[in-house]
Design brief:
alpha+beta; about 15% strand; elongated
Length: about 110
């Protein structure tokens, strides 16, 4: 599906286009087992039961460079959009004398 582009959506139907030289990929996508996989993936993403239609045509190519996010950008986005909180490793409580974890007790010495 990476070699295809959605080109139309309406009336419960999604039309996906493959480039003119991708007839083999279109045939693979039309295989009943693959059709089920794509339909289930679309249903899980959209909540809709879409009918799939595949065709060969010139597909518009995306313009510009793909956006690549740094780890910091992803963390900032998660914080902003989901109210996430970044935890540091140092913030984790360490078991110690003030911890509620009981200290191991040494067994009594063996009796003779």
């Amino acid at each position: 599906m990476a070699a295809s582009r959605p080109v139309a959506l309406g009336g419960g139907r999604l039309t996906v286009a493959f480039g003119p030289g991708a007839a083999f990929l279109r045939r693979q996508a039309e295989d009943p087992a693959n059709r089920v996989i794509v339909a289930e993936a679309l249903r899980s993403l959209t909540g809709e039961d879409l009918q799939l239609s595949y065709e060969l045509r010139e597909t518009p190519t995306p313009t510009g460079d793909p956006v690549v996010s740094s780890e910091e950008d992803v963390i900032a986005r998660l914080k902003a959009e989901l109210g996430a909180e970044e935890l540091s490793v140092e913030a984790e409580p360490q078991p110690g004398p003030s911890s509620s974890v009981p200290s191991p007790v040494a067994p009594p010495p063996p009796e003779d």
